[in-house]
Amino acid sequence: MTQPTIIHLVRHGEVHNPQQVLYGRLPTYRLSEHGRNQAQAAGEALRDKPLAAVFSSPQPRTQETAAFIREHHRDLKIIIEPRIDEIHSPYEGHPLTIFEQPDFDLYRDVEHPFDTPVTMLARTLDFIRYARETYAEKEIAAVTHGDIVAFMFLFSKETSPETRHKKQMLELGLPEAYPATASISTFTFASSDPDEVPTYDYQRPY
Predict the structure, then answer these.
(1) Whole-structure pTM value
(2) Could you tell me if 142 and 126 are in contact, meaning their C-beta atoms sit under 8 angstroms apart?
């Protein structure tokens, strides 16, 4: 392998969410006007990258964000990728105030078919393995969701996905306590070793 394989995980732009609920996989949540501006900035940041593919989770907000990236790569189609989908949670539709409850944990006592940090990282790594094999020595972008990016960041730091505390994310080198909307997290694999831990770079393009 002479060239690195580079995977840009892009979090979707800000979502229009006037009722302030945990929207998860609910189908009607799209980008806000500010979110579209953020997504446009992400597209501009990736404009000169030699992308070989653009992926998106199935959600409308990620597909909208991916469209801004594709604006600069017209020869590519947006590929829908379920493995980088949003968390499947029993709390969808609940008000965001649930996060204000003492010791609330989105993943505590959650069982199949809902997601846990381990299952989310597993499906993310399955996609990463596929991308590394299919686009070896190339560069791709994949628009996804905050926890997918966060767990992949923790993987790059050889830390358990169940450790998701904002303080620790900062201590491990994430410039912000959590990946910002329309931020770009770049994972670089220097070899074809399937066990390689990638290097990590973070950009908020606005």
Answers:
(1) 0.96
(2) no
Nearest partner of 31 among 71, 55, 59, judged by Cα = 59
In single-letter form, the type of residue at position 40 comes to Q
What does residue 151 show for φ and ψ, rounded to 5 degrees? Answer: -70, -35
Give the number of other CB atoms < 10 A from CB of residue 62: 28
Gyration radius of the chain over CA positions: 16
What tens digit of pLDDT does each residue of 129-187 get?
Answer: 999 999 999 999 999 999 999 999 999 999 998 866 778 899 999 999 999 999 999 99
Pure H helices in 46-111: 60-70
Let me know: does 40 contact 201? Beta carbons within 8 Å.
no
Contacts of 164 by beta carbon, 8 Å cutoff, 6+ apart:
117, 147, 150, 151, 154
Beta bridge partners of 189: 5
Residue 143 exposure: Cα atoms within 13 Å on the Cβ side: 31
